[in-house]
Structure formats: C-alpha cells, structure tokens
Amino acid sequence: MTAETLRFLPAEECREQFENYFNDGMGPAESAKYHKGVLEMNADFQPSDLANSRINPTQRTIEYWHEKWRLINLGPRNRHGMIEKLKEKMTTYRNCNVQVEFEENPFAVAIVTPIMKRSHCLPTSKEIIFVDSTSSCDAESHSVTFMLTPCAAGAVPVGIFITKGQTEGSYKQGFRLILNILKESAFCNEGGPATFITDDSDAEISALKKTWPQSQHFLCIFHVGQAVWRWLWDSKNGIPNNYRQQLMYHFQQIMYAETPACAEEAYLNAVGYVGSFIPTYPLWNEYLNKIWNRKELWCLAFRDETIRGHNTNNFSEVAIRIFKDEVLSRVKAYNVITLIDFCATTLENYYSRRLQEFANYRNAGPRLFLEKNEKKSNIFSKPYQAGAC
Fold it and tell me: Which residue intervals define the domain MULE transposase in the entry (predicted)?
C-alpha cells in the first residue's frame, strides 16, 4: 500500500489509547507526539508505520477525539451546560477528598484541597493571610483568587476561588464559600485571620472588610510605590523628567519612616519641599494628600510586629506565577471545570512535591534565608514564663 492509502485506514482501534492520554492531561499535539515516540520504541517498528492511520491517527482525527472527550468530561464552555456538568462532577470531587462549593449568582466556585485544609491548622493562618487575584484564566475570562499563609517552607494556599469578575459581590461570594466549606476549623479555629495583605483593589478590600470586619488590612508596599512611580511618569500630570526621581524619593521617605511623627514630617516636607530646590506641583500635592489620607494602609510607621515583617505580597506573586507556568503552561484553560480540575490535581501535586522536598531537606533555600536573617538580627532570650511573651 502507498502512504496515501494507509492514511485512510480506520483509526478506531487506538481511540481508547488516546483517551487515556487525554485523561493524563495531554492535549492533541502533545498526545500525538508522545504516541509517535511510543511507536518508535517498539522492537518491530517500521518507518512505514507512521503513515498507517490504524496505529498512528492523523492530527485531525486526534483533534476530533479530543473535542468529543472534552465535551463528555468537561462540558461546554457556555454557562448553562458547564453548570450542569459541574453538578455531575461534585461526587467525583468528594471521592477525591476535594471540597468544592459553588453559587450561580454571582457566580463563584470555592476549592479546598487536602493540603489547603491542613494549612488551616498552622498558627500563622490565624495571624496573616495574603490575597491576590489573576484574571483571564480561561476562555470565558474567569478570575482565580488565591488565599495564602506563610510557613517555614514559604507559603501554602488556604483556599482558592474562581469568579466571573473582580467585583465586590464576586469576592464576597468567594470568601463566603470558603468559610462554608471549612466551617469552625477555618483559620486555626478562629474564623478569620488578624491581618490581610492585598493589592490596592477597592472591591477586594471592601469584600474582606465586610466578611471579616475584625481583621486589619494592609497594602503591599511594592505595589504602592509602583503606582506612585507610574503616576509620576504619566505625562498628563505634568511632572518634568528631571524632578520625578526626587519626588519619588520624598514619597519613599514617608513610606519607610520609622515613627508616625517622622512620617508626618516627611509628608510635610514632600508637599512643601522643605530644604529642597524644586518647584511645587499642585497635582502632585493633591495626589499625595489623597494617598496620605490612607497612610495606615501602606506607611511602615503604622505597622507593628503582628505582620511578622511581611510588608509585601511576594508570596502571592509567586503563587500566581506557579499557577500560570506550572499549571496553565501560559495558556488559557478550556472552561471553569478545567480550572477546578487543575487546582485539584496539578496544583495540589505541585505543592505536595515541593513540601516533600522541603521536609526531606532537598531544598536549602528557606534555611539559608533564615540563617541570613538571623545574622542581621539581634537575638536575645529570657527565662520562659507561662503566659508571658
């Protein structure tokens, strides 16, 4: 037979094999490449076998099988069909010890895996939580929000939820679903943490305050400084190039002030330019006055030891990078059910593997970081007394 003739042979005999590839997380292109490698490893392999569609299906056939498999296992992309498929898969998630809850209006899905549930036993989970979101994670542009707590190995997620948008209502729904799943065991049996660190998102902060009104809220100082720098470089604000760096220096003096009195003095200097030789700018004064009114959220002088030195949400940034690189591979997921499956399997396996490496002393990074900080710190000890700090 010629290669053209072999191409038209029926390929149903290996369909089940490709469905197993899809179940393992492979897409059409990856499964086709992997299957060719399997064929070439056979002892009786002949080069002409690659032209035989019966044992090496065409790319179009593989894509067709994948479309059918995806529709059966993940449902359609549209909301109604996807919701019905999600309801069908709830039993599967429970059997895998993954707790999932969802609401349709506003749409939100909360996910708590075994590692996330165990992380609520950490003492730090009642002290400080980092919250951050990433948008456009699937074809319908759903957002994924991470809640993390620090630990000896870095940070571990305490919960993840998926929402249609980043509105206050969506955030409140997601936070409420997390609490519904965990009930009394949430945040080391405290029901909520003492402190949240977030980006400067009004919707997110408002939802946190309404869900946990007793908690403190602080902003990541890196993103605050970044926002000020962007404002200075925005041409519509009329700040000359040669003065932008000096104005940023004035703002940093406020942000890194050691006491509230020093912060206020730095603020007065920044708006009046005491001791400096640059002109004043009304727009800059107006902008600085606006963010000064929220100084408790970003100025270090108004923070104490309860935040454990966490002035940025770098852990959140790393968690989102891991999710996009290791889980999504920098492409959008098919739909929400795919995102749930990824969080319940791929992301869970990643954290499990990394935590095992840390426990088995295969990763010296956190230990070296701790030793480096200990050298910079003044450590003292005192006799232990029950109830004393």
Answer: 144-225
The separation between the first and the last C-alpha atoms of the chain, rounded to the nearest angstrom, is: 84
Q: What is the pLDDT of residue 275?
A: 56
pTM: 0.82
Give ranges for CATH 3.30.420.10 in the chain.
80-219+316-351
CATH number of the domain located at residue range(s) 80-219+316-351 in this protein:
3.30.420.10
CB burial readout 67-104, b (16+ within 10 A) else e = eebbeeebbebeeeebbebbeebeeebeeeebbbbbee
The proportion of the chain whose per-residue pLDDT surpasses 70, expressed as a percent, equals 92
Phi/psi at 154 (5° precision)? 135, -100
The C-alpha atoms of residue 207 and residue 131 are separated, in whole angstroms, by 12
Q: Give the list of residues 6+ apart from residue 122 with CB closer than 8 angstroms, or none.
A: 149, 151, 156, 188
Count CA within 13 A, CB hemisphere, residue 252. Answer: 10
